Amino acid sequence: MSIVSWYFPFFIACFFCAYFIVPKKYQWYLLLAGNLVFYLFAGIKSFVIALASAFFAYLAALKLENDRKNDANKKGNVLLCSAVIVILIAWWLFLKFMGSSFGLVMPLGISFYTLNLIAYLSDVHRLKYPAERNPLRFLTYILYFPQIIQGPFTRYPAMKEQLFAEHHFSYERFTEGSLRALYGLTIKKLIIADSLAVIVNRCLSSYSTYTGGTIFLCLILYSIELYADFSGYMDIVNGVSHVLGIEMPENFTRPYFSSSLEEFWRRWHITLGGWFREYVFFPLSMNKKVQKLSKSVRKKYGSKLGKLIAADIALFFVWTATGLWHDFSWSYLLWGYLNMIVIMGSMHLEDRYKAIREKLHLDEKNVAFRLFRIVRTFLLVCLIRIPAIAGDLKKAIALFKQLSCFKGEGAGSLFSETGGISLIILAVAILIMFIIDILEEKEKWQEAKGRCPVLVKDLAVSLMIICFILFVGGDNDLLGGFMYARF
Predict the structure, then answer these.
(1) How confident is the model at residue 461 (pLDDT cuts 50, 70, 90)?
(2) Assessment of whether the complete model's pTM goes beyond 0.90
(3) Distance between CA atoms of 309 and 300, rounded to whole angstroms?
(4) Which of 18, 113, 477, 486 is deepest in the core (most CB within 10 A)?
């Protein structure tokens, strides 16, 4: 069911009531039932495919664990684990790009639950934790409805402790979680992201008629839209999960306040970055052949380059996989490689940057210098996103060229079809989001909320509820219009 329709709050209200009324030892059964009901709205085909994938991984994990514990052939066990993972990836790619030709649908959240299944199988294979013996418990984790559409990615041991624990109703958790979900849904998603989507799409659909400055403004607006859309979703699902007493990892820590591209990716889609770091970067960088090459380079060219070469090789595969995970296209590969080139360049030139800063007496703690680096990183992120925004290489090249064009329609034409009141509401919403992010960055948001007068809090909640009523959709679009849900 769509998170931005009337169905979802009705479903959540009923689920909350039932969850805290049933005997505590049966709560996880109700959670499983809620997951199944939520996923059934995606259609019976999606439901069956998801069940088949989960059951396949469940049986494979039991086999992998049993072989390792019984000292079975280690090489054969590695091959079996690799084969199972390849099958899951091949199945995902088949459904994503060829499924419709065979009458099959792209299952809801398959990109996200497939990576969770791969992580689970890898960890069980390495005996990090035992395989789950109860198939219903395993299904409760894989299909946990707050994370099924867009994540966050989670690890089974951390979620297991919470999913199957007994949870009592907490009014404090209820208010905190509900307000966070309401904020993410109304301010971020319905007002900021959806409003900016109209403006951005208007520009991109006829980009050749606009000046370079207008295109650049569009790129900035797109970045705000993407952040509000994705982080808004995370606020909704983390808020809902918090009410249940189940804490999921955060996926954002104010990424647009980053001083470098590397820092940006530590703050943006954190759990995806953690997944690639754990299951792609470290295994590749510590691979025997890579380490042998690193040792050889260290002898010939010095310890620093020898150390970096292993990271370079691993980063190449990480960004190739990251680009292809978003979409199997050259445009997303280019987007990934642009990120990789900047990050690699920063790593290799770090000593020179440090020398330049010392020569110019630039203090990293200086507010003005930090602000410069934040703005520089944000604008760089906007530019690097052009291939991903364009969707194909030809349009991406055309967008890059259009940035240098001085002829065409100005920025005012972007907003000409948007009502004045709507623009004021949009501007106020962006300002609110920006102020809250600053307070969170300075770790003063909780203090500010505590000192806020009750009347102001009540007014803010009332306004958000009114906005929800005015802007919420009544359709049953499963993805709810969320941008990352298509990946």
Answers:
(1) confident
(2) yes
(3) 12
(4) 113
